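#onboarding

Welcome to the new folks! Below is a worked example of what a typical request in this channel looks like: someone posts a single protein sequence, and someone else replies with the predicted structure as tokens. Don't worry about understanding the tokens yet, we'll cover that in week two.

Example request:
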Amino acid sequence: MKTRTIFLTVFFLSGASALFAQERKEKFEVKGNCGMCETRIEKAAGSVEGVRSADWSQESKMLELTFDPAKASLDDIQKKIASVGHDTPLHRAKDEVYNNLPACCKYERAIPEKKSGEK
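Example response:
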């Protein structure tokens, strides 16, 4: 009986640690300016399944994320943020979406690199 109790305890503890090990923290730049940007960026990131928390800083322009990599990828999260008008290291917002942002939310955008063969 004692051996069985020890075995079950070890089994459950190892299972619990595996659940917590799936959480991943990342930090990356997201272009934006104001409180409306903060709300929009955090809401977009948080809408991706698997994202547990998203906190964007107006001062540093950095987004801190906690997410489950089994359910979400950085690419998916950054794509979602770009879809609401904010550039990220992996995805540039479409010009049409960016141009529809309120004036206070418009930030200086980098000129996109042309792909080989483009004029």
